[in-house]
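Provenance

Sequences were taken from public entries as deposited. Structures were produced by running a predictor on each sequence independently, with no templates supplied. The record for RING-type domain-containing protein from Adineta steineri is shown for reference.
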Amino acid sequence: MAANNNCEYINDKSIPEDLLCPICTDPLEEPLSANQCGHTFCRQCITGTFQTMSQCPTCRYTLTLEDFQPVTLRPFLNQLNQILVKCKSCPETNIQRGNFKDHAIKCMKTIVSCPAADIKCSWTGQREKMQDHVSICPLVQIQPVITELNATVKQQSEQIHFLYTVLEKISTNYKKTCKEYYKAKGAAYCDICKNRFIFDEHEHRLHYCPETDFCSTCVKKYFS
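Predicted structure for RING-type domain-containing protein:
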């Protein structure tokens, strides 16, 4: 795999062959090594390859993805991290690959999204222009309110789910009692809408106890 979309390797012809992935021919990223044959590949490369085959791409040894383990040999990982890259967004060069994420977080030329992207602000631009955008973006201004509303909705949804669970559990616990009750009474009425239902509808409604009933229509109306 290439280093990533924001950087590129410097003088990649000089990178030792044992640091290259046999599949993509780029320096290894998140290297995985096969226990049986010892060949090593990028995690994404070998995962994609094993969607259509079950052999080592290098030696054709029969394997499964479970046979691959992350490379933990520190000197080898250090060599990968020390490969030099340059930023595509700014003039800075000779950055060790292992340090590029730190550079990208601070690089003022990197393309970033608006902090309110999660609520549909479509702005993207260089990090150095972010503050100018934030100062005029209406979605950024209302983002705290929307975040709070979303949290409230989530909490209420969880409460509703809990109520359904309680009703269903109680319904199960009282099933035998209810059956005996309806055999004796033959009919009952929803405590909310007052509509009549009979024992044949027993499996199609939620009920609280033998003498306090809520038809499924009312439960869905008031608790969903």
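Residues 22 and 90 are 30 Å apart (CA to CA).
Confidence is low (pLDDT under 50) at residues 201-211.
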